[in-house]
Amino acid sequence: MASDIPSIAPAGIALDGGAKKTLLRKIPHGLFICGVAEGEAVNGFTASWVTQGSFEPPLVVMAVRADSTSNGMIERSGLFSLNVLAADQKDLAAVFFKPQQGVGGRFEAAPFQLGPLGLPILEDALGAVECQVVGQVAHGDHTVFVGEVRSAVLHRDGAALELGPTGWQYGG
Fold first, then answer.
1. Backbone φ and ψ of 121, nearest 5°
2. What's 117's domain CATH number?
3. In the list 25, 97, 125, 127, which could disulfide-bond 172, CB 3.0-4.6 Å?
4. Given a cut of 70, is residue 171 above it in pLDDT?
5. 77, 37 contact by CB (below 8 A)
6. Is the pLDDT of residue 89 over 90?
7. Poorest-pLDDT segment among 17-31, 64-78, 134-148
8. Percent of the chain at pLDDT exceeding 90
9. Listed residue (50, 14, 15) closest to 31, CA to CA
10. What is the average pLDDT across 149-172?
């Protein structure tokens, strides 16, 4: 358990908050639309803390705000999709980035179909993977989910949207 791990930082060392923020924002991130479903309800959000974690089995790792509606939906369903956006889809990422009331409204701006696992797959994205949660760590203000890729849909190939060129910042 993380709380049982002793601190290795010497006592009296202060974290330089400005340096931390600047440096952590330098970590490159893609921008994805994470889709979730629970019963008839679908929801989605822009995810940027995502990486591949393993070739075999194919795993992706994603951090999700702990207090979000989608976090709870992922915990209860054990499933999520990751839609890979094209480099010119910043406006679509913005729709899913903005806070909203309720569940599902963002998908009114983006045509989608449900994939084999019943998760939202955006028709205009480069493609998507559907994942089954095989591990998670709840620590800090995000939950880190490890998902095994169970299905993949490729609509077209192209350059993927990345956070840096958008001028947005999420991190630090």
1. -120, 115
2. 2.30.110.10
3. 25
4. no
5. yes
6. yes
7. 17-31
8. 62
9. 50
10. 85
List strand residue ranges (DSSP E) for the chain, in order: 32-38, 41-47, 50-54, 59-65, 79-84, 112-114, 120-122, 127-139, 142-154
Whether the pLDDT of residue 3 is over 60: the answer is no
**Is residue 5 in a domain?**
no
* C-alpha closest to that of 61 among 87, 21, 30: 30
Which pTM was predicted?
0.85
Whether 116 is covered by a domain: the verdict is yes
Length of the chain: 172
Q: Within a 10 A sphere around the Cβ of 1, how many other Cβ atoms?
A: 5
Residue showing tokens 């955006």: 122
Q: Which of 50, 44, 9 is CA-nearest to residue 28?
A: 50
Buried b (16+ CB within 10 A) or exposed e, 56-80: eeebbbbbbeeebbbbbbbbebebb
Q: By the 8 A CB rule, do 48 and 82 touch? A: no
Give the structural domain span for 42: 24-48+69-131+151-166
The whole-angstrom separation of Cα 145 and Cα 77 is 12
Q: What Å distances lie between residue 146 and 25, 113, 149, 158, CA to CA?
A: 22, 24, 10, 25
